[in-house]
Specification:
The chain is α/β, with parallel strands linked by helices. It contains 5 helices and 5 strands.
Amino acid sequence: MKILVLIDGSKWSHKGALHAVSIAKKKDADVLLLSVLDRREARTMAFNYCTQSDKCDIIGTYEQNIWQDMRRNIETELAAVWDFCNGEGCRCTTKIRDGDRREEIVREVRDGGYSLVVMGAHGRSAKPSLGGTLSDIAGEIETPVLIVR
């Protein structure tokens, strides 16, 4: 059995990882912790900074710095969750994909042969409804999805 856990840095994805580890221990399953980084987020943040600060001459540098920070933050996040999984005796790996979140998650699910996808009910924004990622992938995959609150 293989379990895919979507990690976005939110407390909700951490809760999802806790549940995935519990299931993995009972089912002797492998766990993959997946995070998808979308450069458009860095570009948007850099643009917002540019328009608010009048420093548009350095927008490219600022975008690159944001992108590096995003990658560093998610690498740290994945390492912490991996440490927990490993400490619990689970077989766990991590992966970061760059690109459109929906496309990359669907590609990983289809190519990876997973028995279960685990995700938090909310993303980093903690909006009151189920996150956009779920609605993006729901009709695209056949693998069962466990949503953790």
